[in-house]
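User: For a benchmark we're assembling, each entry needs the component sequences followed by a predicted structure for the full assembly. Here are entry 17's components. Please fill in the structure.
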Amino acid sequence: MDELNERKQNILYAVIKYYLETGEPVGSRTISKITDLNLSSATIRNEMSDLEDLGYVVSPHTSAGRVPTDKGYRFYVDKLMAEKDKEVSEVKEVMLNQTERVEKVFKQLVSYVANATQLPTMISAPSITKNRVKFIQLSYVDDKNVLLVVVMEGNVVRNRVVPKSSALDNEAMLRLNMLLNTHLNGLTLQEINLGLVSKIKDAAGEFTNIVEEVLNTIADTISEDDLEIYTSGATNIFKYPELSDSRRASAFLDNFEDKEDLADLINEVQIDSEKRGTGLQVYIGDEAPSKNLKDCSLVTATYDLGNGVKGTIGIIGPKRMDYENVMTNLSNLKSQLENTLKRSDDNEPI
Amino acid sequence: MDELNERKQNILYAVIKYYLETGEPVGSRTISKITDLNLSSATIRNEMSDLEDLGYVVSPHTSAGRVPTDKGYRFYVDKLMAEKDKEVSEVKEVMLNQTERVEKVFKQLVSYVANATQLPTMISAPSITKNRVKFIQLSYVDDKNVLLVVVMEGNVVRNRVVPKSSALDNEAMLRLNMLLNTHLNGLTLQEINLGLVSKIKDAAGEFTNIVEEVLNTIADTISEDDLEIYTSGATNIFKYPELSDSRRASAFLDNFEDKEDLADLINEVQIDSEKRGTGLQVYIGDEAPSKNLKDCSLVTATYDLGNGVKGTIGIIGPKRMDYENVMTNLSNLKSQLENTLKRSDDNEPI
DNA sequence: ATTAGCACTCCAAATGAATGAGTGCTAACA
DNA sequence: TGTTAGCACTCATTCATTTGGAGTGCTAAT
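Assistant: Structure for entry 17:
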């Protein structure tokens, strides 16, 4: 903490701030000019040399300016940024229209964020494995199939057409619906264990095999795309020359296109967030829980709808991204999401 | 047609074939060596000069080899390719698992095709506006909402939580379900016109306003994401140096990420396909019905499930893509899709 | 403690020569 | 008449060289 005196902090701040804008190594003369410290370039040079020894900056080669290291960025995010720039950026209210399908809401949302930050953005819909079953319904579709609809808390709806092996008249269907609802309502997927399953099958009597099919389908349906990921703004990385050469860009976009990889990433971020008890997190370079983000930073906001139902918004960009802007945006979004989606749960009678 | 004698055609074929592989302008000496025409480079030079005059090839600068023009490609696709290479490439049976949700099937499919062709691929789920309503169901969710489920032909399911303004007991719900199903089953969205709507509202009696909400929602639900587009393999363009500089790549990926643009494109392709009565289409460069594909070719297969229900698979790549491989792949996919999805409709009793 | 001054380093952009692939043309040949 | 060998010419690419400038580190003066 005392490692850096005020002047060094000021200089480090100026270096990073300037570098964030330009992406070019910044030299002593520049700092001397842009700050109002009234120090000559020579003095700055001495200080910067110290900062380099302490590991906050490096110069890419002998006669270049200095570039922040991960440690430098970390210090900036943790200390400098918070202290200096507490000017509250205007909070834009995002239109969260809950009457739309969830899917569509998230599509709009992710594209809004990508646009606001001008960075590649991903967002995970709330993981529904921890979400509770609100309502289950089987209905007649045609002779060979029944339609299974499962409504989860937060009005997430999943449906599937299930082929039926045996005949099933209306009354039987009614009974099955009753059976399923009385046993499963209010439970999370994790709570639907083998014991319960066999109990339901017993109770189903002659319909034991159709119930089995239905239960399998429920498990499938709920878990199959647990962690649905939406992305947008991938091409924003081309705004940063340091990431746009074709090798790097291709590698990055490959990752960004692979929803499964992103889901893994988000999973780890959520675990992390739980551990640290923070909603907003910044991963600089190697800090990110993923292999291929060496040259990038990741900023995430994990929103929490209670009952362990969580989702994450993530932004990936160059290390020299505008952390402040990104962080205010995300934290803003996070609280709005929590408010809106929680409010929609207040409606429910359960 | 007589414009090109056999020898010229052979040479043009060799030029294009070679260029498809290398992406480099190809010179007379190369052609002289790789063909078994036993012609000296000088002769080839003369012929190539003629081909250039006729507009089938150009040389990018004075001392470079020749590169096919759009006209050259067109001739290749229409004439040369068909004649020469009718070796049937092995037809791989793609796993089309219809028990999965449609959504997931298409996701798998598009990624399969992208992988098989090593090109950016998009696919549109069958447009459901022309699809028929099979089954409608309202059910109780909680005090303030009802759940609306619409099953279309081909077992495409759409659902939505509809806020209800007035109380609605079980019996009323039953009556509404009857009413909606008797009036709407078997109709396409286009056939649900204003006259019909007011007729239903009349018949609904006291529930006229909830019926209105429901009907609006149906219209919305069906049309909102008409033409859902799935994409995959976007980063494959980086395999082609001529498209991987950051300006071009960025522009391309921007387009490819924008699902609305792609939907427009697919729409026009489908119209086109109808006009020409072909399922498989090749657009070379400017031929494509879109602004930003100047440097690319687009190959599409429009599958037709009957009753005007159509969808399109599209592949976008450099002009020098492997047309044969791509076209056999698509035509293969097309027929399998048609078979599988049609088969699933045979199940239905309507 | 700060600063001016200077030598030194190294990148980046500019210049220019060498290389080589390819063409067009002409003249010779079958 | 069609084909080919030969030659002069063009132009992109590559590589080494030069040059300019930005920046540093060090030293000596304030």
